[in-house]
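Hi R.,

As promised on Friday, here is the backbone we talked about, encoded as structure tokens. Could you run it through your design pipeline when you get a chance and send me back a sequence?
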């Protein structure tokens, strides 16, 4: 059985704090998330699937920062969906062609599962008109 890391306990050790301070000094990434990934890699904090344990790591790092051990890179402000302005087209959308006025009138509608949203919209077909 693999050793389970106790992230908070590991990072709170004096030698770990020293390592984190060195990483901060050599840090060339632009985001806090990238730094947390670097810390996870340095200390081997990965889950059973080999993915970095970023949430637990950032929680422990933030607690250590509040304790005055170091200063983490600033976090980017989150932009909520409501805070985004809608994109506008340069021209009006053309009137629909061959689309019934009522949804009940649509017949033989075929949906195709595609990877991108754009392809999904292009894959919709109204047939039987």
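Update: got your reply. Pasting your designed sequence below so it's all in one thread:
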């Amino acid at each position: 059985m693999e050793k389970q890391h106790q992230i908070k306990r590991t990072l709170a050790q004096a030698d770990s704090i020293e390592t984190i301070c060195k990483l901060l000094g050599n840090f060339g990434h632009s985001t806090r998330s990238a730094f947390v990934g670097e810390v996870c890699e340095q200390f081997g904090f990965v889950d059973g699937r080999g993915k970095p344990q970023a949430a637990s790591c950032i929680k422990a790092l933030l607690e250590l920062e509040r304790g005055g051990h170091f200063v983490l890179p600033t976090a980017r402000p989150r932009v909520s969906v409501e805070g985004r302005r809608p994109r506008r087209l340069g021209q009006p959308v053309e009137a629909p062609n061959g689309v019934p006025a009522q949804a009940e009138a649509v017949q033989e509608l075929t949906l195709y599962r595609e990877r991108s949203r754009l392809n999904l919209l292009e894959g919709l077909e109204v047939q039987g008109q």
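One thing I noticed while checking it: The two ends are 63 Å apart (CA to CA).

Thanks again,
M.
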